Amino acid sequence: MQFEVWAPQARDGVVLKFADTGAGADTDTPPGPDPADTSPAGLPMRPDPGRPGWWTAEAPGAAADSTRYGFALDGGPVLPDPRSRRQPDGPDGLSAVVDQDAYEWRVPWPGRGLPGAVLYELHIGTFTREGTFDAAAARLAPLAELGITHVELMPVCPFPGTHGWGYEGVSLWAVHEPYGGPAGLKRFVDAAHALGLGVVLDVVHNHLGPAGNHLPRFGPYFTDTHHTPWGAAVNLDAPGSDEVRAYLLGSALAWLRDFRLDGLRLDAVHALADDRALTFLEELSTAVDELSGAVRRPLFLIAESDLNDPRTTTPRARGGLGLHAQWNDDFHHALHTALTGESQGYYADFARDPLAALAKTLTRVFFHDGTYSSFRGRSHGRPVDRTDTPAHRFLGYAQTHDQIGNRALGDRLSATLSPGLLACAATLVLTGPHTPMLFMGEEWGASTPWQFFTDHPDPVLAEAISKGRRREFAAHGWAAESIPDPQDPATRDRSCLDRSERVTEPHARLLAWYGELIALRHGQPDLSDPDLAAVRVAYDGAARWLTYRRGELRVAVNLSGEPVEIPLDGGGGFRVLASWDRMPEPAGDGVLRLAAESCAVLADA
């Protein structure tokens, strides 16, 4: 088997070392070997004359699946492979060979594209108490029955300990072992595809976690040319950046190719500092489109971006980056302020006139599209060309891992809103022009919080994270003792879903409402119409109602605590396709009478 590694900083050579247990040993039996237990001799690697900085070695007897190995640079400690496909003992342990052809896929999969999708964000570690791919796979059938089309997994790269959000991952080609490792992810994807569900994976290219990151020992993976909230930036444009970009590109394509994923969600692309003429994101979108053609199934990229820049999803041929979609936090912020009345921080501008903000995001995508942002202290964003941009390129949502977990107590909307207002939120998400996305448990108004949790074995780092979390929220007026300790196992346990709620009220009624709305979205072509310019909105900020028209359908929500009468544009009659509360028969006068904290989907009579 050919082993290779990019290590331009090695001066005295690189040695390939294997575990003392021998090549091909059964390494699934704990405990795994420590890097110090490797053979002292090892196999010296040769510089590759055709690729500066690369070292290679042929090890014919080491091709067996699960063979443990690592690299020693300049006589130093044995380190895991930067391109490791498996880390059986965690980020600091030896790497393991993975035979990608060993898994026999059960389900032929033609792929499932983004247009018409309903996404469901899912965290493997808390979707079930077990916190594994296999346990999660066993719970996918209700999502398919609900009408979900894709599950979007939060990051699954290895990170220290057992439990965490995944955004402190390292080993960007590998899969977190406590979840089930690479084989477990393949079984999950196979199970999802068998139910007709596509699978999207959240990947993090803008930083690596603070523990278990050995990349700087190998080469200039990071640069002080730019700085990010996490320190030195990933090197996308300084010397050595060609190989760093190739490392990230190869990782992204490997997820799509080897695990048969349908798409990737790219975390915080605004934090990818890149001054090159051809940006990394353009390279990535080009490579993904080429892979899509090669494997003959649709593949897509969804960006999380704070820039409010439509060029993120504009095709490359028209000067854009060519990503296929992006999250739209502006829609979330407008909806959140309309529902809750919160006005702190970045909610302030939206809270001045929440329904006007919501109307703007339903028709023009971004609230800040060149307008002044008081949170940033400057103008922000750029307008979307509504006549030439399909609506499915923007994701709309009422809740996400960020917007719940980054709150002091990790409280969901269900902690403070009535079932009627939760139903209104669902209606606006699932009938709006954007591609809808739900956060796990939202569909039944889960009462469990989703809190920030970590599991760092390093006691110094663990204490720093716990104190930092409490200090952060104490600065905003929270009592330190009320902030959940990220390192306390109970914090993760509180965040696990309780499925017994699904059959009790008011959860069961809300779950049925989500199913009814998703069925309408799939069954009514007007609700998947990509024409943003065709959406017409009317609202009354004082009376707290809003209605919009999509083709022959009208959607109405009443966020107030009193019944309202809503004059519908054009007058005439209508028929009710779905309503949260029982509605009186239409009077034929073009006026919709809607109960307090209620919503309805109507069609022209």
Automatic annotation (TrEMBL):
Residues 18-53, 72-95 are annotated as: Disordered. GO terms for cellular component: cytoplasm. The active site is at 267 (nucleophile), 304 (proton donor). Residues 19-42 have a biased composition (Low complexity). Pathway: Glycan biosynthesis; trehalose biosynthesis. The record marks 402 as: Transition state stabilizer. Substrate binds at residues 265-270, 329-333, 401-406. Belongs to the glycosyl hydrolase 13 family. This is Malto-oligosyltrehalose trehalohydrolase. It comes from Streptomyces paludis. The gene is treZ.
